[in-house]
Write a structure and sequence with these properties.
Length: 63
């Protein structure tokens, strides 16, 4: 059962423990997928560290 099917069932008033459990399961899968795609790459992390370090050097007048 996909999320759209669960949502259709809810719209039609078919709300059971199974429907609720499946909806929560699908929401968890969506959250996990979004988290997986939101992770930074190693290059992005290195860039961020170097950028903040350059700001720190600029503040101390060491460009």
């Amino acid at each position: 059962m996909t999320l759209s099917n669960v949502m259709k069932a809810i719209e039609y008033g078919i709300i059971t423990e199974t429907t609720k459990a499946r909806l929560e399961e699908l929401e968890g899968e969506i959250d996990a997928e979004q988290l997986r795609h939101s992770q930074m790459s190693c290059d992005e992390i290195v860039f961020g560290i170097e950028w903040f370090a350059s700001l720190d050097r600029m503040r101390e007048g060491r460009s």
